[in-house]
């Protein structure tokens, strides 16, 4: 089955001459006919990515006589790689070759009772017609140092832009492999190749570029590309899921905790002992943590450059870690009604024994370490939070018509704030409160708190509606937003939100609906239910930082996902849970994050949060403050980056209102050491801190032209020495 593990299933091969039909792409499995309860893509879908998975989910078991068929608009059948999950309820199919851009297809299932014994069997089935998206156009600046080359086989390629932005590398560009030309490599330092289908001209251009010093990052490149680059040959069987263990033996990976990180498949079985000149940055392990003799990530030198080999699709793995299993959408899996976002993880899509580690964040940071250490020039990046902060608490409460819950909480925080504090620098203690419509709150009082930097909005209550009426559920969201605005017309438009009962629908149906009402930050991924997490403070979505949602076609939504990890009602001990998250961010593990909270004014949890955060110097902010910071930091960028004779020149663009932003540069680079940083002709002091094992120089990020001077370790006042590798690379590009 093309490397996929298929459990408890068999393929019935029937000669086409006997059946009178072509069976290419047909898949037969056991049991009796039963209508599926999920068929993806949805009927009549448009703009479907050509590499998207096709999913069929049945209520109990996959029937014994099911046939799947994917047919193009011209009648040709499309060959499928198919696997059945361990539950025997779900079939996942992938086209062997990517589908075409902007073409129509029909995905069908069919069942025949007594299929092998009777020609008069009753046939049952259904089909989903869909049309693929038009080929994606180029995106990003022509001078961006990082280029992503994508193919029709990888839906989540564009999400690398969000991954890189979240890690402060704000300058990247994208091009579809079919449209790539050698000019696309001009001024690039790093190329992420996220496809197995590469024309020979593209491969030849990349080969010459790497030889001159470039860093090429291959994401599950396939047998042909592995052979072209002299990489280890992958085994025939791939893994559907595994853990990854960063190696303690390389400077890129030694700063990571020894705990395994989850990766989602397909994952190639790449031997870790080949080629001999490779550095293995991470090994694969079984789900129980037992190490396998397989490489998850390795780097091989080629000429002056390097080729990195990921055994899996990093962006896809990160999106699934953050958002859950799409084959489980709209299913109440935990037995705790209604359907919530945690049902996309329950019980075992998330390895709970390792979930105290933000595994998606750690994967991103490993990629960034690779880029910093192996790129041909030192690349600047932005820090996650203002003022070099390593953690923040996003204080959000839900007020269900308490008498003075919101008012008293906001009054306490204002009283605890230092005199003369600045809200824009996160120096004042602030919070968001979402009010159900019956909550009584004086309009003038509400306006006064908002003017001080607090946030007020509606807490939509759908009556904990089940998915039996999805249209009514979604309509209720927009209706309650309108009602709240009518009640508080003086308040600014609401931009953040969490639903009552954290009801969920689809994969991104809720944030899509919220966006229609102006919401751009969603807090509905909520650490629940108590009997699942069993008192453990974990990262349900593998992350402590806001990032945009992605749909199943890899499109990033203009809505940030912020998981609500600190919850007063999930039976995690209050002091222990809050302390664990903050100690993880501030301590040696460096699990940096902006952690969202939930309190409902029924206990003293908001006071516990404030007490622990103040003791550790962690700011309390509203969800809207978080969103404002994200917008400003993500619009910030570096441009005109050049590296010559040890001098790194670049221009910082930081929009007004982004207060307290900091930038980073590697302290050491290919035998050189950072000596000084000058911006707009003035020397800028920098502070050295070890971040995930690498020494980084922090300096204030304000707009202007800058020069960072790198010297040989033995150099003194004689001036900068030439870095032969990097300088040659830049000269060639120019």
From TrEMBL:
So which domain of life are we looking at? Bacteria
Keywords linked to the UniProt accession: Membrane, Transmembrane, Transmembrane helix
CDD domains, A to Z? A4_beta-galactosidase_middle_domain
Q: Which residues cross the membrane?
A: 12-29
**What name has this protein been given in UniProt?**
NodB homology domain-containing protein
Organism listed in the record: Limimaricola variabilis
User: What phylogenetic lineage does the species belong to?
Assistant: Bacteria, Pseudomonadati, Pseudomonadota, Alphaproteobacteria, Rhodobacterales
């Amino acid at each position: 089955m093309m490397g996929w593990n298929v459990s408890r299933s068999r393929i019935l091969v029937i000669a086409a001459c006997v059946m009178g039909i072509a069976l290419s792409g047909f898949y037969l499995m056991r049991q009796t006919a039963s209508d599926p309860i999920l068929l993806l893509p949805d009927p009549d879908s448009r703009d479907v990515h050509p590499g998207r998975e096709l999913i069929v989910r049945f209520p109990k078991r996959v029937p014994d006589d099911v046939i799947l068929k994917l047919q193009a608009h011209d009648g040709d059948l499309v060959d499928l790689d198919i696997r059945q999950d361990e539950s025997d309820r779900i079939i996942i199919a992938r086209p062997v070759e990517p589908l075409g851009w902007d073409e129509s297809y029909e995905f069908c299932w069919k069942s025949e009772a007594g299929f092998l014994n009777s020609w008069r069997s009753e046939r049952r089935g259904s089909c989903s017609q869909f049309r693929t998206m038009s080929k994606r156009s180029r995106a990003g600046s022509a001078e961006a140092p990082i280029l992503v080359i994508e193919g029709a086989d990888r839906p989540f390629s564009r999400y690398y832009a969000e991954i890189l932005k979240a890690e402060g590398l704000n300058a990247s560009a994208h091009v579809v492999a079919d449209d790539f030309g050698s000019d696309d490599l001009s001024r690039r330092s790093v190329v992420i190749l996220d496809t197995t289908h590469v024309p020979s001209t593209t491969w030849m251009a990349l080969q010459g570029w790497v030889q001159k010093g470039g860093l090429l990052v291959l994401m599950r490149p396939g047998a042909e590309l592995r052979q072209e680059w002299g990489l280890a040959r992958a085994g025939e069987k791939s893994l559907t899921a595994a853990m990854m263990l960063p190696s303690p033996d390389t400077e890129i990976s030694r700063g990571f905790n020894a705990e395994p990180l989850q990766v989602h498949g397909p994952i190639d079985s790449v031997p870790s002992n080949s080629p001999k000149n490779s550095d293995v940055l991470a090994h694969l392990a079984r789900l129980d943590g037992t190490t396998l003799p397989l490489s998850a990530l390795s780097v091989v030198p080629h000429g002056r450059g390097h080729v990195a080999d990921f055994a899996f699709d990093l962006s896809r793995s990160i999106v699934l870690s953050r958002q859950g299993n799409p084959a489980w959408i709209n299913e109440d899996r935990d037995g705790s009604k209604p359907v919530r976002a945690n049902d996309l993880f329950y019980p075992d899509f998330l390895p709970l024994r390792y979930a105290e580690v933000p595994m998606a964040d750690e994967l991103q940071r490993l990629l960034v370490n690779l880029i910093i250490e192996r790129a041909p020039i030192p690349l600047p990046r932005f820090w996650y939070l203002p003022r070099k902060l390593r953690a923040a608490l996003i204080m959000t409460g839900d007020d269900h018509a308490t008498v003075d819950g919101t008012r008293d909480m906001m009054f306490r925080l204002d009283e605890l704030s230092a005199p003369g504090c600045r809200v824009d620098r996160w120096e004042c203690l602030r919070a968001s409160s979402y009010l159900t419509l019956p909550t009584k709150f004086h309009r003038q009082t509400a306006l006064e708190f908002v003017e001080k930097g607090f946030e007020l909005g509606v807490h939509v209550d759908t009556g904990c509606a089940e998915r039996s009426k999805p249209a009514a559920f979604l309509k209720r969201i927009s209706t309650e937003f309108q009602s709240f605005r009518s009640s508080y017309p003086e308040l600014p438009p609401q931009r953040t939100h969490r639903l009552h009962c954290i009801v969920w629908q689809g994969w991104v149906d809720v944030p899509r609906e919220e966006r229609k009402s102006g919401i751009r930050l969603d807090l509905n991924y909520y650490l629940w239910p108590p009997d699942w997490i069993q008192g453990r403070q974990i990262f349900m979505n593998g992350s402590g930082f806001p990032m945009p949602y992605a749909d199943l076609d890899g499109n990033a939504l203009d809505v940030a996902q912020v998981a609500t990890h600190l919850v007063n009602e999930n039976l995690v001990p209050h002091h222990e849970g809050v302390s664990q998250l903050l100690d993880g961010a501030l301590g040696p593990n460096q699990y940096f994050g902006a952690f969202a909270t939930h309190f409902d004014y029924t206990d003293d949890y908001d006071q516990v949060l404030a007490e622990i955060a103040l003791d550790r110097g962690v700011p309390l902010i509203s969800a809207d403050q978080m969103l404002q910071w994200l917008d400003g930091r993500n619009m910030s960028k570096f441009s005109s980056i050049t590296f010559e004779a040890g001098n790194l020149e670049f221009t910082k663009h930081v929009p007004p209102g982004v207060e307290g932003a900091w930038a980073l540069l590697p302290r050491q680079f290919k035998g050189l050491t950072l000596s000084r940083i000058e911006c707009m002709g003035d020397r800028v002091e920098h502070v050295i801190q070890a971040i995930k094992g690498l020494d980084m120089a922090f300096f204030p990020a304000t707009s202007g032209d800058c020069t960072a001077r790198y010297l040989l370790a033995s150099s003194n006042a004689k001036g900068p020495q030439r870095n032969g590798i990097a300088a040659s690379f830049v000269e060639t590009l120019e």
